[in-house]
Amino acid sequence: MGESRSISETDYFLGLFLLPMSLSLEVSVGKATTIYAINGSAILLPCTFSSCFGFENLYFRWSYNNSDTYRILIDGVVKNEKSDPRVRTKDDDRITLPGSTKEKMNNISILLSDLEFSDTGKYTCFVRNPKEKDLNNSATIFLQVVDKLEEVDNTVTLIILAVVGGVIGLLVCILLLKKLVTFILKKTREKKKECLVSSSGNDNTENGLPGSKAEEKPPTKV
Ligand SMILES: *[C@@H]1O[C@H](CO)[C@@H](O)[C@H](O)[C@H]1NC(C)=O
Ligand SMILES: *[C@@H]1O[C@H](CO)[C@@H](O)[C@H](O)[C@H]1NC(C)=O
Ligand SMILES: *[C@@H]1O[C@H](CO)[C@@H](O)[C@H](O)[C@H]1NC(C)=O
What we know:
Keywords: Disulfide bond, Glycoprotein, Immunoglobulin domain, Ion channel, Ion transport, Membrane, Signal, Transmembrane, Transmembrane helix, Transport. This protein is α+β, with helices and mostly antiparallel strands. It is 38% helix and 28% strand. The protein has helices at residues 2-17, 20-23, 152-206, 212-221; strands spanning 26-28, 34-38, 43-45, 48-50, 58-65, 70-78, 86-90, 95-96, 110-112, 121-129, 135-146. The chain binds 2-acetamido-2-deoxy-beta-D-glucopyranose (3 copies).
């Protein structure tokens, strides 16, 4: 037991020196910095946390902020790794906590339903861990409520891809065609050479001038 304590203390010591926030208590709202959602629908604002040292009576809070308002949407406490969050205050009935904090899921995402255009703004997920001397951390995600989801970007990308693909295809076709044409030309030239050689050979044996063939024919007919 003494050994494990010394290891964690070393880790903590290193953590304080290197990246005190990211090495111990981490908060993540996923990769997307902006989430788009349609008015009237529901959206999950993701948030998970992790701590190398475990947690006890961890305090969590979701807050909303736009240019002129700041309000706490929901906050509460997670007693330990075996319990789900206990909500202390909730600002809005449209908010629920569908995730679980049991079994290392540490999921304190909120589901925001019946979205209104005024829900557009910054959402911050904040976590404080008494077990780590009240170390805290937070992550922010931007929600944009729209009346319909545009997929213009996608179409533009597809068009660009199609054009690039078409151009490359065309180039390949041109190259192939060029190869084919030079191949055919070479072949016909070779054939012509063969013809010339063979015809000159014939000429030699048959003493032929251009008119000789016409003279040749009557004897075969007879
Ligand atoms: C969303 O907003 C649009 C434009 O204001 C409106 O026509 C539509 O009915 C709204 N949808 C819902 C589900 O509220
Ligand atoms: C809310 O957002 C504004 C603009 O980004 C920022 O200046 C302000 O500090 C934020 N307020 C809080 C309480 O986070
Ligand atoms: C958190 O929980 C919600 C609801 O169950 C789920 O949809 C979401 O995928 C979970 N997020 C993570 C990162 O596990």
